[in-house]
Amino acid sequence: MSGKGQDERRPSGELVADVLAALWKSGKPMTTQEVNAALDKGLARTTMATILTRLYEKGTLRRVPAGRGFAYEPAQDAAGLVAGRMRRVLESEPQRDLVLKRFVSSLTKSDEETLRRLLLEAEDGPS
Fold it and tell me: Which H/E stretch holds residue 99?
């Protein structure tokens, strides 16, 4: 067995990140073919269809009818996606207070000030 195919594999998540970046940049729903063309990586249509379907099933993408297939768009912006990921990780941890304490203690002074400001704004309610 040749190791060549293994060496040419993308790092985990790179292709998904590229797909999401193309969809965010577009600002409109894109078909499988449109996403594939935007990435210009020479991927098989079935490979791209599988990636988009899996992201849809995870709730990362929404899809709308487009011709005989679907067009896909992100369910949220990049910041929302990261925030959701952070929330899910925190929810899966039994010692949430310890995780939050370690997280806060690792923040830069600037990030800590931003977090304090955001917490105060949230406490005050919508403007």
Answer: helix 96-105
